[in-house]
Design a protein that fits this description.
With about 230 residues, this protein is an alpha+beta fold. It is built from 7 helices and 13 strands. The protein has helices at about 30, 115-125, 125-150, 155-170, 180-190, 195-205, 220-225; strands at about 1-5, 35-40, 45, 55-60, 65-70, 75-80, 85, 100-105, 105-110, 170, 175, 210, 215-220. Strands 1-2-9-4-7 form a 5-stranded antiparallel β-sheet. A 4-stranded antiparallel β-sheet has the order 3-8-5-6. Strands 10-11 form a two-stranded antiparallel ribbon. The mean pLDDT is about 90. This is Crp/Fnr family transcriptional regulator.
């Protein structure tokens, strides 16, 4: 990883939480304090349990956040792309990161230190209110994920994951625009790699999906949705 300065005002990422608030005059004081960090694919930029070093905003790229579960196994808890915030769990209430994070491809991150974030939250009410709404939305998603684990079987969880990444990353040339290994799919769906492979193979035989290497393409969105319709999570 390497660091470099970048100017937020010339950034083309309109989904960025910071960019959306640059119209506020007070934000000018804080933009110069942030750092841009360039990560290569597979680089870890947050270590679970490490001292909190502020929040990360994805300028360009994709990343996964993980949490250590039973027997030291890492569970994927979130997939992120342009404009998403990383490292917010524990911010303000903990001195250490509650998750780890890895780049899924070459990724550019914007980092605002603990001190800078605290200054923004204390002096820019509109930004603080928007961040509060973001936290509320994330809490709702976390509660839904708990319900999924309790009520969905393994096939339904894999289908739910495929529909989720289809919505979040889109599909180009018939393939979802993210590379995930079978192990990563299994981790996020809360199952074993062997089960994930069997389910993907079954969905492929049923002509519901196609695969090319690590890429998966959804052929029948409506049919996959109908399988988890009763859960209302798609």
């Amino acid at each position: 990883m390497k660091e470099e300065q970048a100017v937020c005002y010339s950034c083309t990422n309109e989904n960025c939480f910071i960019k959306k608030h640059l119209h506020l005059e007070q934000m000018t004081n804080y933009i110069s304090k942030k750092q841009n960090i360039i990560c290569k694919k597979s680089d870890q930029f947050i270590t679970e349990g490490a001292p909190l070093q502020g929040l990360y905003f994805i300028c360009k790229g994709k990343a996964k956040t993980v949490k250590t579960g039973i027997n030291g196994r890492e569970q994927i808890v979130r997939l992120t792309t342009n404009g998403d915030i990383i490292g917010f769990r524990g911010f303000g209430t903990s001195k250490r990161y509650l998750i780890g994070a890895y780049a899924l491809e070459d990724t550019v991150l914007c980092n605002f230190s603990n001190e800078t974030m605290q200054e923004i939250l204390q002096h820019v009410p509109e930004f603080t209110y928007a961040l509060m709404l973001f936290y509320a939305e994330e809490l709702n998603k976390s509660e839904n994920n708990i319900r999924k684990i309790a009520h969905m079987n393994v096939r339904e969880r894999v289908i739910d994951l495929l529909l989720y990444i289809h919505r979040k990353f889109g599909q180009t040339n018939g393939l979802i625009d993210i590379e995930l290994s079978r192990k990563e799919i299994a981790d996020f769906a809360g199952t074993t790699e062997e089960q994930a492979i069997r389910i993907l193979s079954s969905l492929k035989k049923e002509s519901l999906i196609k695969t090319e290497g690590k890429r998966v393409g959804i052929l029948e969105v409506s049919e996959l949705r109908s399988e988890i319709m009763e859960h209302k999570y798609f």
